[in-house]
Amino acid sequence: MNDNISAFDSKEYDMQIKRTLPYYDEIYQQVVDLVKTCNPNALNWLDVGCGTGKMAEIAFKNIEVEKFTFCDCSFKMLEIAKERFTYPNTEFILCDIQEISYFNEYNVITAIQVNHYLQREERKKAVQSCYQSLKENGIFISFENFAPFSDFGEKIYLNRWEEYQKKQGRTSLETNNHINRYNRDYFPITITEHLELFNNCGFRAAEILWVSNMQVGIWGIK
C-alpha cells in the first residue's frame, strides 16, 4: 500500500511520475511563467498536495517568494519536502485540500495533480477552500487529468498515454495497471466542467493554461 493517494510511494514518486506523466517538468514551468506575468512581486504562495516539493523547487529558482506554505495530506511526502527545504520563509501543514481554512492570505495557490482524486462535491469544496484563502486578485492554478468529451476520445487518449509510458521503460503490466486507475482511483471531469466549476466558485476569470495528452491546467483570478 502506498503512503499517499497517488500511484507511487513517496520514496519513488519523483522518479516514477516522470515516466508516467508527459511534459511533467513543463507543467511546473508553465505555472511559474503565468505567475510571473500576473504578479511579479514578492509572493505568499500555498502549494496544496505539495508532494516532495517540486513546485517549490521551481518557484524559488524563478520568483521572489516572501512565504511558501507546503500542504499535503501525506505525512511521508511532507517529511521529504521538509528535508529538502529548510528556508526560514517556509511553512509545512499536514492537511487535506478540503480542510484549508485560510482567509485572504495568499497571492498564489497551486494544486498540481490533486483534485481529480476527489468526487464532484468534494472537488467543489476544495476549490472553494482555495478561493477563500486567496487575497483579492490572487491566482489559483490547478493541473489535473481531464475526461475527454466522448467514449471514442477516451479510448484514443488512454491508448496514447499507455504507449507513452511504455516508451519511458514501464512494463506492459505497469502501464495497464496505471491506465486502469481511470475512473476507479481518480475521477476526471471535462475541461468545460473545470471552467464551470471555477466560475461557480466565484472566480471572476477562469481560463485554460495548458492542455497536453490527458492533462489540463486551469487558472482563476479572484
UniProtKB/TrEMBL annotation:
Q: Which Pfam families match?
A: Methyltransf_25
Instruction: Report whether Glycoprotein shows up as a keyword of the record.
Output: no
What InterPro entries would the database entry show?
Methyltransf_25 (IPR041698), SAM-dependent_MTases_sf (IPR029063)
Please list the residue ranges annotated as the Methyltransferase domain. 46-138
In the record, what terms sit under GO molecular function? Answer: transferase activity
The alphabetical list of record keywords is: Transferase
Presence of the UniProt keyword NAD in the record: no
The protein's matches in PANTHER family, at most eight in alphabetical order, are given as: TRANS-ACONITATE 2-METHYLTRANSFERASE-RELATED
Q: What is this protein called?
A: tRNA (Cmo5U34)-methyltransferase
